[in-house]
Amino acid sequence: MTEAPLLELRGVTRRYPGVTALDRVDLSVRAGEVHALVGENGAGKSTLLRVMAGAISPDAGELRLDGRAVAFAGPRDALARGITVIYQELTLVPQLPVAENVFLGIEPVRGGLVDRARLRTATARALAELGLEVDPSLPVARLSVARRQMVEMARALVRNARVLALDEPTATLTPHETARLFACVERLRSAGVGIVFVSHRLEEVRRLADRVTVLRDGAMVWTGPAAEKDDAALVRAMVGRDVEYPRRPAARPPEEPPALEVRELSREPAFRGVSLRLRRGEIVGLAGLVGAGRTELARVLAGAERAGAGTMTLAGAPYRPRSPREAIRRGVVYFPEDRQRAGLVPRLTVGENVTLSALDRFTRLGLVRRPAERRAAGAAVRDADVRPPDLGREARTLSGGNQQKVVVARGLLARARVLLFDEPTRGVDIGAKAELHRQIRALADEGRAVLVISSELPELLALADRLVVLREGQVTGALEGEAMTPERVMGLAVAG
Amino acid sequence: MSAQRTPVPGGSGWLARWGVGLALAGLVLLAAVLVPGFFTRGNLTTVLLHVSVNGILAVGMTFVIVTAGIDLSVGSIVGLAGVLVAAVVTNAGLLSAVGVAGAAAVAVAVGIAVGAGVGVVNGTAVAWLRVNPFMVTLATMTMARGAARLFTGGVPIGFPAPGAPAFDLQVAGLDALHAIGGGRIPVPGLPRGFPVPALVMLLLVAGGGLVLARTRFGRHVYAVGGNEEASRLAGVPVRRVKLGVYAISGACAGLASVLLVGQLRSGGPDAGLLYELNAIAAAVIGGASLFGGLGTASGALVGALLIGVLNNSLDLLGVQAFWQEISKGAIILAAVLFDVWTKRGSDEAVG
User: Fold this and answer.
1) How far apart are CA B306 and CA A318, in angstroms?
2) Which of A57, A253, B59, B259 could form a disulfide with B208, with the two C-beta atoms 3.0–4.6 Å apart?
């Protein structure tokens, strides 16, 4: 353990408007070790990898390579110095063969032409080193995700990578594929590569990691040998902040049929056999890791995707929406996570965005009755506390929190009775967050049924009357009242 | 609500909005000073007449482009609908059955319906089969042109051969259509009157502008083009909207074919060749974004006028037609660069 680290990050800080993504983080990677980086969604793991990859530069702190301070000019520079980061979104060109992908950007050239023979043999050697049997002339598009990851690792190998960082490589793999990936990682480790391994799954950390660093809210909370802390202690370190929001009193007793009931609902491969109930006046939190199937479930409830199997009932009546339009007509509204991509029409005005779901009510003979529209939009914008309450402003000029309020105002105007919020406060500053929480609570108190998906445990714990935990597409538990502790939720989310 | 849109703070929204109009005004002013014979009432109405077919196509095209689509088939629709219009209006049986005016009315209906029909095919393939609009309309463009040539055997349908059994009747039919396509409305102060196609174009611009700016459908068109996924999740019937815009574009092309046949007293299978490109150019010059979400009917008119005024001025100056093509290309390039430039400005205001 006295060996000098290959790569060392000291006091790395990175701020974004309104958020400190990394706050004085230290991390060191030694040759021939696997260093696991763990933390909740949004703890800053991906940002840290991007700093290592030279994709972003830190606002403060330094990177040291072989004991000397370095500043990467960009990802190319970091690559040239032997640091490779494999992101969850792979960076292969699907149409090109494996060999061309492995050597993309550093193709061996002879006489002005690509030396294909060398390309193939060198690729075959790298693949063999990883224990991967793939024809180097096969287009990458024909490979599974797991094999594509290994092609990325082969890419790191031919570049003589000394540090390799993997961002949640197992998130989409089957257990068998995961085992193969681990075999690759172990080969690289014994070849002296320093490996940073990001994962949510504690059993993987146990299997692979020599050392562990825990990040929480952008700060390093613990680092040390993996054997030093047991699972429970690691979970505590991951979620251990004080609950910032006041806890809710217990919900009122249910007497009527549930506003929305789901039985044995499936949509492969995202989720299967999910049953849950939403009642009027109640907020149900849907917990789980990214990729556990939460968003897909909400999208099926909202008619954005079709269910494969199972039944849904809306206030006692059969419910099987074929489009969001139909779902909205029946009072079920989905508030998507990615507002820029799926929530707002950025070049329409605030007013036009707010009335988009309810335009039928303000239309006579096809013509929009603008005074009525303006009155309703104005009231909805005031209720949702959009700032500034200017209907004529283009929606793209608003801050993230206000954009979310615009989307909420739209749902209210559409007379939603069942509201499905997907990460309602992601990318929203603290002030707007509290306001959104207050609004969501008020919506439930007015007799609506609310489902909230959030990767922020404290948010769920503060907001929800009940919690349903998904793991890998299945419900692993439902918690209520005193049973809703961060440890139990994380336990169900990571280990079933 | 769009009438009182708040300008983007610090952005160049004002310039993006009025820039093309200013460019047109500047060009007209320049031509008035430099080009002898340009700024006369007679010549200005001629410009409007020459612009009318492209203006009509450009209004329809704008609907499609605002949804981030493209319609390459409009030129071929002008050809196909045109030969059918000419065939209907010179059909002796029909002429004697419903009279000259009746046959002309049927011809107008057939022209618009054929155009809308091709548009419905386009829209169905784009919206339900999810085929790329460029490829769908490239295919229907090729098929419609082929169908027009097949139907006519490659030669225009029009003026009957001397001594044809229904010669007088057929000429009367063509004349009736000519009243629309080549007719002039007497206006005091305009010695030759105001051309009917220009009036049709102006009405269409006004109607298209009303639909885009004031109707629910128009709002949906902008929403789909601005963010299709968000619109779908907000309950906008995205597929119906797409079907609608292609049907409108096709119907506009059908209407244009009626005017063209009336003007020429003949429907040729090669009529409207490459018109789609002029229509796209006019729409884009007029501020429509090929990425969707932006564009207006009046902008399409301004774009068509800009091209028309330029062509007319160069004509009057006796400049070779080849130079007109080069200058039209330069305007398209300038418009696109202007678009990129003003957008970059306003995006910075967001960050």
Assistant:
1) 57
2) B59
- CB burial class (10 A; 0-12, 13-18, 19+) of residue A107? middle
Decide if B216 and A348 are in contact by the 8 Å CB cutoff.
no
pTM comes to 0.78
Domain ranges in chain A with CATH number 3.40.50.300: 7-239, 260-495
Question: Do the beta carbons of residue A214 and residue A221 sit within 8 Å?
Answer: yes
Quote the CATH superfamily of domain A7-239.
P-loop containing nucleotide triphosphate hydrolases (3.40.50.300)
The domain A260-495 having CATH identifier 3.40.50.300: the answer here is yes
Checking B7-13 for CB contacts under 8 A at 24+ apart, the result is B8/A394, B8/A397, B8/B346, B8/B349, B8/B350, B9/A397, B9/B349, B10/B348, B10/B349, B11/B345, B11/B346, B11/B348, B11/B349, B12/B342, B12/B345, B12/B346, B13/B342, B13/B346
* CB within 8 Å: A324 and B220: no
For B38-340, CATH gives: 1.10.3470
* C-beta separation of A133 from A22 below 8 A: no
ipTM of the complex: 0.83
pLDDT in tens, A135-156: 999 998 888 888 888 898 888 8
Helix (H, G, I), strand (E, B) or coil at B243: helix
Separation of alpha carbons B322 and B344, rounded Å: 34
Nearest CA to CA, how far is B244 from chain A (Å)? 14
Would an 8 Å CB–CB cutoff place B232 in contact with chain A?
A: yes
